[in-house]
Task: structure prediction
Amino acid sequence: MVHDVRDRSREILRAELADAAATFCAEHGFDKVTATEIAQGIGVSRATFFRYFASKEDAVVSAARGAAARGSFARRIAETVDVAEPGSSVWAVIRRAAESMSDMADARGDALRARIRMITDVPALTAHLASQRRSDQTAVEDVLRERLGDDRAASALAAAAVAAADLAWQEWARTPGSRLRPLLDAYFTALGDVATATLG
Result:
């Protein structure tokens, strides 16, 4: 229990530091500041910064995507699976687990949209985001493999889940005034339906 509390506290602190780092970069220009300058700017030591982030790219991408929401996607899937009714659709369970993303998007609004768009404009950030996406997919895959006992199904569902979430985030960031929840619904429904689609 104590270990769980410590992990949760570390996750919250990491999210707060990422948020401050992203704000600093937005104000000063991502390419114009170093990780050391970011650490100084947000009031922590260089050692503390690197205790939580591998690089300045890591900090900014974590903030833009929501460290608390993205980092716990696999855990939320595990929790949702554990309380799901027998016979529930695995895809529907995964969609419910993504709901925390909607809450975070609603709370952060335009500031988060701007950060996501910043990532698409900076090649180093785009590359780092791709790396984080692979880590997310692996974590989701591990959870599903444990629950399903089928490696191929777990791999396919994990890839589709991360893709659906990414597509929803991208459209949300490009569309002022949009809500993430209906976009998640649309992409999860589309990917769920496409597997059974027939050619005309």
In short: The first helix runs from residue 2 to 28. The chain is about 80% helix and 0% strand. The chain has a mean pLDDT of 85.
